[in-house]
Amino acid sequence: MISHPFTVTLTFFGDLVFFLKCRGAAPTIQRVLKEKASVKDVIEACGVPHPEVDLVMIDGTPVNFSRVLQGNSVIEVYPVDVTHTSLKGHLLQQRHITKFVADGHLGKLTRNLRLLGFDVVSPAPADDWRLLEVMQDENRGLLTRDRRLLMHAVVRDGFYPRSQYPDEQTVEVICRFQLSNLISPFWRCLRCNGSLQEVEKGDVMKDLEPLTRIYYERFRRCKDCGKIYWRGSHFDKLRARVEGFFSKLAI
Ligand SMILES: [Zn+2]
């Protein structure tokens, strides 16, 4: 069967232009296709990973990622942060994801999110296969700056932090997944992601340095790795970090 070439015109809205291959190019791209293709594949061929796309309209009608293109089409592609209240039933991304798997390059973001109480694992060794496996097995959102990985067909929820700076990335993740109301600082182990529980001083006495024994009364311990936390000098720095996030998020 002979297929006739056809033209698709894609316009990317909001910060999706961040992903387009020609930086600074117009947000509208024309492609000539020689055979039919899913709208997801055509969008990703422009550089935009599907977990970043919240709404796709073809000739003014909302569609899902599997819609097959086989004739001239005008396609609008929107990110998550553009509000479409009238199109709520057609939005493609979930909000309120609270559990994540982060790739190893995002170590400081991982620690920041744990500091704020969020469940973030970072498996080692963090090869792509392992990250995707943990994501699927534990139903986690994927945090990565590897856009090829984010485009993998098995990724349901994911996010590509735009900023290179961990504190800005942290705010981006909280905004993208609307997590401000769920922040619960100092209840998760920064080292291993285990949850912390309050413990009696007597229970941890033997593990404390002499001055810590004298000056501090309240302790929390990681249920997983056993690390002990208390309000020592390091605590003021962590509290300042938390307050910094609160002010950036206007909480
Ligand atoms: Zn721990």
List the helices and strands and how they pair.
Elements (H helix, E strand, L loop, with lengths): L5 E7 L15 E6 L3 E2 H7 L7 E6 L2 E3 L4 E2 L3 E7 L19 E4 L4 H9 L3 E3 L6 H10 L3 E3 L3 H4 L7 E2 L6 H11 L19 E4 L1 H4 L5 H6 L3 E4 L5 E2 L3 H16 L3
Parallel strand pairs: 1-7, 8-9, 8-10, 10-11
Antiparallel strand pairs: 1-2, 3-6, 4-5, 4-7, 12-13, 13-14
Helix pairs in contact: 2-5
The structure holds zinc ion.
Verbal overview:
The chain is of the alpha/beta class and 251 residues long. The protein folds into 3 domains: 6-90, Roll (Ubiquitin-like (UB roll)), CATH 3.10.20.30; 99-187, no CATH class; 196-247, no CATH class. It is built from 8 helices and 14 strands. It has helices at 39-45, 107-115, 128-137, 147-150, 166-176, 201-204, 210-215, 233-248, and strands spanning 6-12, 28-33, 37-38, 53-58, 61-63, 68-69, 73-79, 99-102, 119-121, 141-143, 158-159, 196-199, 219-222, 228-229. The strands form 4 sheets. Strands 2-1-7-4-5 form a 5-stranded mixed beta sheet, with no helix packed on it. It has a 4-stranded parallel beta sheet with strand order 9-8-10-11, sandwiched between helices. Strands 12-13-14 form a 3-stranded antiparallel beta sheet. Helix 2 (107-115) packs across helix 5 (166-176). The radius of gyration is 22 Å and the shape is elongated. 27% of the residues are buried. The chain binds zinc ion. Residues 189, 191-192, 194, 222, 224-225, 227 line the site of zinc ion. Zinc ion (ZN) binds next to loops.
